[in-house]
Amino acid sequence: MTLTTTTDAAAPALPTALAPTPGQTVGPFFHYALPYDGDRELVAPGTPGALLLHGTVTDGSGLPVRDALVEIWQADPSGRVVQRQGSLRRDGHSFTGFGRCTTDRTGRYAFTTLRPGAVEGGLPFFAVTVFARGLLHRLFTRAYLPLDGAEPDALLRSAGDRADTLLCVDDEGALRFDIGLQGERETVFLRWPREGR
């Protein structure tokens, strides 16, 4: 079969290069569609070794982002990357290394989890993803445990004088990790190859 096309002499010529159009932003539907029972409790409160990881998400003006969604992935305390199903239906005893938390009216999020161990000799960290109104893509970053004298890894060194935006701060037995989406205290975000940017 052969396809043939005809052109109308009166029809305007199409431009050879089309200008890209903007993608659609995500949200603000996180509080409606994505939370689930136990989403922010990677372990039950009171579990031996349980730790509170918390912080706030702020915009470029330093104002709280009230409808963001923060996800974390992490290794278990021995540094093993957990590959177990069950993150969306907590059974109360299986540690899956994944959690999801929406921010409240003050931009605050909080997880009950375990302190991650170092994977293959690296520094221990939480992998963090942020979804928020107005973002075309989710944002990726890391929340490293306080260094406590350890040498920074290559990623921390590459962040230069902004490396402190990737470090958790000890907060009376908890860990605090604030996320700035823009502005003076903008968190260092990472490019993820599969995002297609």
From TrEMBL:
Single Gene Ontology MF annotation: protocatechuate 3,4-dioxygenase activity
Pfam family, one: Dioxygenase_C
Record-annotated Intradiol ring-cleavage dioxygenases domain positions: 45-118
Organism domain of life: Bacteria
InterPro entries tied to this protein: Intradiol_dOase_C, Intradiol_dOase_core, Intradiol_RC_Dioxygenase, Protocat_dOase_a
Keyword Oxidoreductase (UniProt): yes
Oxidoreductase keyword on record: yes
Keyword terms, alphabetized: Dioxygenase, Oxidoreductase
Family to which the UniProt record says this protein belongs: Belongs to the intradiol ring-cleavage dioxygenase family.
Name of the featured protein: Protocatechuate 3,4-dioxygenase alpha subunit
Organism: Quadrisphaera granulorum
